[in-house]
Amino acid sequence: MRVLRIAFLCWLIGLFFMGCTTSGVGSRPGEAFTPTPSALDSISTPTPTPAPAGATPKAPRAGPSPTQSRRADVFRPKPLPGGFTVAPNWLVFQPAKGSSQPFELENFVWLTDGQRWLGPFPFYPRSISVDFVMIRQDGAWKACWQEGEALPPSCVASLPGEPPERRKVSEVECAWLIMQEAAQCDLPPGMPASRVQIPNPFQGLEEPCSDCWQFIRILALEGDSTVLAIVSRHGGLKLPPYLYVLGPGEASRALLPPEERKGGMLAVQGFAPDGRFLLIDDFSETDDMHTTWIVRWPQGDRVSFSWPGRIRWVEPRPERSSQ
Predict the structure, then answer these.
(1) Residues 103-122: pLDDT tens digits?
(2) What are the two backbone dihedrals, phi and then psi, of residue 71, each rounded to the nearest 5 degrees?
(3) What is this structure's pTM?
């Protein structure tokens, strides 16, 4: 009997070791496909490796969908046509969202001199209507934004090269009745001339009215003999403004006449820091059309920047530092 008990125990131990060996081989699940980071760039829907029959494979990790992409990746700006460059000036561009509202802006910006593009960079204020400046920080010139004098600047990128020397812009305003054929504006000392004459673009467009008048802004760069006149109408029918280039001894020259405009309404955003270019918003209040003209001053040749969004000059502020 003792021999039988010993034989029975040996038989049980053998069964135990046989079961462990079987479970370690037969019930192991097959390896599922898991793409590496490099594979995720080129594979949109990974195909799992078939698992052995009876096994329960792991769920494959989903790769990126072809339609899933950040807006910053979708928008890839190209150089301006014709080799148009504004260097050494820089522009900051904030794209509009893909909606019917052109001024709902994305939370990133790009920087460009017309041919080189840097970006995209995160940007969280509502729009680039805040001061966007170029300051020297840690031995390099950087593009930064500042929401107020009391707050320190937030820098988004270093810019190559040196900033242009900032040219001073003088401005004067005058007003004339709408019935006049031309307006004559007296200019203060320091401007290229003591008086300029501007044609009245609104004469004859509708019946004259006693309370209609033309409002004129004159912009002049320090050291420049040519001025820009912005003529807008106040009272009566609302009409888009007109721009005139006025040079000594020359007839006035219309800049962006109505037949060349994209939307109709114009808003001059100002000269480039070195005074060689003008930035002009061209938009329509009725159909959400919006573009920006980059105009060489005072020659007048230009290129239209048609991507929806806001574009502004990056103003050099060498007096501001990280100290």
Answers:
(1) 688 889 999 999 999 999 98
(2) -60, -35
(3) 0.73
